[in-house]
Structure formats: C-alpha cells, structure tokens
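Friendly challenge for the regulars: who can give me the structure tokens for this chain first? No prize, just bragging rights.
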Amino acid sequence: MCRGQIGEKFRSRALEFPGLISGCTFDWFQRWPKDALAAVAEHFLSRFDVDCAAEMKSQLVQCVGTIHDNIAQSCSAYFQK
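First reply, four minutes later:
Bragging rights claimed.
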C-alpha cells in the first residue's frame, strides 16, 4: 500500500466513493508562473540563514523558480511524446 502526502482522510474517502476516483487523472505538475514560483521560494528560503550577500540569496530564489519551471517544461514535453 502506498500513502502519499494527501493523508489518511483522503484515502478513506476514496475507498468510500471509488466512482469519484476511478476515472480521474491527477496532474501533479501543473504549470505555475515564474513569479509565483519565485514567491514560494522566497517564502521558504527567507526562513533559512544563508551565509551570503542579499543579492546572492535573491539569485538563489530566482534559480529555484527557474528549476521548477524547467521541470514543468520537461514534463510537458515528455507527455507530448
């Protein structure tokens, strides 16, 4: 049995109502705008003390957003093949 991050409540509901789930496809890699990815990265990275200049940390935030965007592009290209 595999349990994801959704939780036990989702699993129990899915077992109670299998017709809702049986024909669905979950797309976990929906495309986000780059500014939204950077905002999420900024939110989480702001909690960490990174021993670097503020400009370097800002570039790190942009890099994390770019990496996630590239993953989304790769997934889209993979599923089109």
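The chain is about 65% helix and 0% strand. The mean pLDDT is 81. Your move, everyone else.
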